[in-house]
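Target protein
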Amino acid sequence: MPTASLYQPDILGADYEQRILPQPADYEGAVQSTLVRRLPAKQYAQAVLYVHGFNDYFFQQEMAARYQQHGYDFYALDLRKYGRSLLPQQRPNNVRDLREYYADLDAALTIVQAEGHATILLSGHSTGGLVAALYAQDGRQRTAVTALFLNSPFLAMHQSWFNKRVGVPLAAALGWLVPGAKIPTNLSPEYGRSLHREHHGEWDYQLAWKPNQVFPVTAGWLRAIHGGHQRIRRGLSIAQPVLVLHSDQTVRTGGWSDEYFRADGVLNVRDIHTLAPRLGPRVTVKAIAGGMHDLVLSRPPVREVVYRELFAWLTTTLG
């Protein structure tokens, strides 16, 4: 069967198509992930595979276009239980071990390689950055990854000292006993409102897949994230070059303010800056002045800085 016939039209329109990647069933039943590619496909020998964050899915069309303008075929992966991959019987985001995502990445990387790409940049945002880093450390197809770009990776909880040291470990322990128990989140809806054009932002995306008030999480999910964060604190040994970009400041206000347009409204940037060097021996870390949590969704002048830093680093690192 020709490869092209495995792809179907995507919700983003004529420039995109998607391919469903069936996965073995889990504790919630049937599972799938979804690979999206930007057309025209297979123009270049190098490609990028993008992995979205928590409460998220791929919709960043400007980012995809920028990669193609710089000679990279563009692919994005909607992980299991997110976005295009979410099935009716599933709780959004619900995993019990971050290694569950490895099968999604295995399948996607196999296809990207089979479609003629010898050089692959693995890019992850927020939780996708955490998953990408762990995969680059011990995923089955990790040798297919040439370099990593992590956009505000989720390397630590943005919580009080007490919650980090006591609350999260206790809730993670609960996740071993009762993985389906719901855990309240304290993530503000203001970050989503700073992005979507129905509120204060400039972007249009499916609020059913990326709601302003984030999906509830389970104790099993929290246990999985806590385990990933513990590995980061201990340190990884990723062999590939890694670029980590993050905002230069964290939102400090409690309610809505314009600060969301120029700071990270989800994570503590000091955690990212401190922990990123522990990913491996070839890590470059830079703060982007005025960046939002998802740097490529920042205001236009800041986005230009992000892309300039990214493609300059890729030119220097990959040639």
Q: What stands out?
A: Residues 22 and 32 are 4 Å apart (CA to CA). Helices lie at 61-69, 102-114, 127-138, 161-177, 190-195, 219-234, 269-275, 300-318. The longest helix spans residues 300-318.
